[in-house]
C-alpha cells in the first residue's frame, strides 16, 4: 500500500480474513505503534509516509514504559539518581575494605573449600545448612541469646530477611509500626506490600514507648520493625527498660516485633544491652542478624530467628522465593564465626571505627557551630541536623555537582518528611577520602547557610 | 482472685484504671488465651481453676497459628510433607555430586579467591558484578545470543529470577499464561502474586500456539512463562517455528515472555534450537539462565536478560528485595564460565546424563507395558503416564511407606489437575540408588495396577 492510502475497516478485514475483531484491532495498533500507519478519529487509518516513521529504539522504549509495574516509586527514583559521577560517597552505610580483615577472610574461605570440596556440588536446604545454623547458635550465646539451630533460618543478608517477613505476614492495609526516622530500605519493603505505616518518634533512649502504647489502642498493629542498637540512622540505643516494655506491649496487643540487629558488635565503649529477643518468652520477636557489617560483605549472609508456625511459614515463603541461600557462602560465614581470630578481628574493627567516628565528629565540629549531632557510640553513621536555613535536598543537589553524596534524612521517614537532617557514613571511604568529603560538605553547608537570600525549593532553579 | 470469681466488666475496669476500653479488652483476651479466665456469653468473665490452665507451649503455638499470612497453601503443604524418612529420592530435579566436576570447581574457586582476596571485603551492586556480566555475555554468544553486559542482571538462581519478574510486573488479577504441565516452583510464585493463571497444553513440539492465540483474543495476558528446552516436566523442546511464532504473538498482543532456560546445555544428541530470546527484536522476551544445573549448585547464581525500562524496574525491585547477589559467588561462576575446561566438563556431563537416561528408560521398559513415556533427549527427568487404574497421589502415599518419593504430576498443573502422571528425576541419586529406587517404584506400580479391587481415593484408608 502507498503513503496516504486508507486501510480497510477493522470489521471488514476481520470478515475477509476470518479472524476476530480483537486480532485485527491489535494488528492495527501494532502498525500504528511502529509508525507505519496513523489513525484519524472518525476518518479511519492511513499509511504514513516513511520519513514520518519513528525511530525503532524509541518505540522499543515507549512500549516498555506502558507495562504497569508494582515497584514503589521511592526506590525507583533512588535508582535513577545520578550516582555515576560520585567520587565522595558519604551515603552508603558500608565499611571500607581497608578496615576489614580480608586476609583472614581469604584464609578461612580457602580452608573451608579445601576441606570440603564436595560441598561445591551440593545445594542448601531452604532453611539453611545445619553447620551454619549451629555456628550461628553458638555465636548468639555470646549475645545472651540461647537459640537452638532449628530455630534459625539462613537469609541472603538482613534486607532479604526483612522482605521475607514482610511478604509472609504483611499485606494491603496491615498496620506496621516503624521508628521515624528508620532504615530507608525497610520503608520500601513495607510500602511495596501495601502496608499502612504508622511512624513513632525516636528519643535519646530509643523509640517512644508511651506514644507506641497510645497508638496500639488506636490501631491494630501487626508488626513493629525496629533497629534497637546504634539505630540506623540516629545511632541511638534502646534502653533495657524499654526493651522489656516492648515485649510486654507486643504480648498484650499480639503483634510481631522484627528486631533488626546489624550493628551491636560495633560498639565503641560499653557493650550494648542484650537483644530484645533475649527478653521474649512467648515468641513475639523475630530476630535478624546480618553478618555483612563485620564478616565478609561479599558473602551477603544473615540469620533469622523465629519459632513454631511463624518459622514454618517463613521457610515456606523462602522456598518459593529462591529455594534458599547459597551453601558455599553459608559454609564460609560458619567458618568465620567459628574462627579463633574472630574476637581479635572484632576488637580491631571497633577501635578503627571509633577512631573514624572521632575524626568525623571533629571535622563536623570545625565545620559550623550551627550543626547539631551526637557523637556516635557505635555503628558507622552520624545523624546531623542542618542549620535552619539549609534544606537537605537542596544541599544534596549542590553536593552532587561537586561529585559528593550523602543520605538525605527525608529518605528515612516513612510518612511526614522533615528536610533538616542528613546521615553521614564515616566508614565507607579511606581516611583521606573521608577528610576531603567532609571538607566539601562543610564548605557547601557554610556557603548555603551564609547566603543572605535564603535558598528555598521555590527559587532553586532545578526544582 | 479465686477460682470461679467474676472479673469486673470491661467498662467498669476501664473507668477505674483510667485506661481505654480496648486496653482492658485486650488484657482480658490475653488472660483468656493464656487460660487464666473463661468467658460465658451474657454472664461475664470468670477465673478458671488452675488445673484447667492449658499448657504454655501449646498456647505459644496457638497464638502463632492466629497470625494471618500470605503464603500460598500449595507450598506450605509441600513443606510439611514427610520428607524426613526418604531414602530413595526420585523427586528432586538436581544432579548428584558424583556427576559434577567438584575438583574443577574447587580449583577455580580457590584461584578466584587467591587472585582477588579484596573482593571478600566488598559487595556487589544490585545489578551484578561487571566481570560476571561480561563472562555471561561472552558465554551467551555460544548460544546465538548477542547480549551486552549492561542488559544482564545477576540473580541468586533462576527461581529468584522468576519471583523478581513476578513481583515487578504481576499483581492481583493480571493474566499469566503457563504451560500445563509446567515447573511447579513457578506456579506458586505467580499464585502468590494473585495472578489469574491460564494453562495452555504442551504438545510434542512444545506449547500449543494455536490454543495460545485463541486465548490471547479472549484474555489480555500480561506474561507468558515458558520453559522451551527440555521442558520441566515433559522434556519436550519447542520447535524453531513455534519460537518465532511466540515472539510474533507477544508483539501483537504486547505481553512479556519469560523464557526460563536451565537445561539447554544438557542435550543428549542434537543441540537444541537457539533461545526464543534470539528471535526477539522488540524487547518482549526476558531470558533467564540458571547456572546451578551445570556449574556449581553451591553458588546458586543465574543471569537475567532484559532491556530498557523493563530492566530498570527489575533492578529497582531487586535492590528492595536483597540489595543484589553475593559478589563472591558471582566471581566464582564467572571463573567457571571463563574456564578452558568448561567445554570438556559439559561434554562429560552430557554423556553421563545420557547414560543415566538410558538406564532409567530401560528400567521403565522392564517394569510394565502399561506405562507411557518418551525417552528424554536432554535434561534430567522423565515424564511418565501411569496405567489407568493407578492414581498418582495414591502411588505416592504407598511409596512414602517404602521411603521413596517422586514428583506427582498434579504438582505441575496450575489449574485442572490430572492424576495419572509422575515425574522421575534420574540424576539426583548415585547409580545404585537409582536402580533400587526404580525397582521399588515399579513393584509398587505393578502391585497397585494388578489389584482387581481397583484402588481409589475413596476407599484408601488414609484419605
UniProtKB/TrEMBL annotation, chains A, B:
> Which intervals hold domain HTH gntR-type?
1-50
Q: Which cofactor does it need?
A: pyridoxal 5'-phosphate
Sorted alphabetically, the keyword list is: Aminotransferase, DNA-binding, Pyridoxal phosphate, Transcription, Transcription regulation, Transferase
Q: Which PROSITE patterns match?
A: HTH_GNTR
- Which GO molecular function annotations are given, in alphabetical order? DNA binding; DNA-binding transcription factor activity; pyridoxal phosphate binding; transaminase activity
Q: Give TM regions.
A: none
| UniProt keyword 4Fe-4S, yes or no | no
Q: Which InterPro entries match?
A: Aminotransferase_I/II_large, HTH_trans_reg/aminotransferase, PyrdxlP-dep_Trfase, PyrdxlP-dep_Trfase_major, PyrdxlP-dep_Trfase_small, Tscrpt_reg_HTH_GntR, WH-like_DNA-bd_sf, WH_DNA-bd_sf
Q: How does it assemble?
A: Homodimer.
> In which family does this protein belong, per the annotation?
In the C-terminal section; belongs to the class-I pyridoxal-phosphate-dependent aminotransferase family. Belongs to the class-I pyridoxal-phosphate-dependent aminotransferase family.
- What name does the UniProt record give this protein? DNA-binding transcriptional MocR family regulator
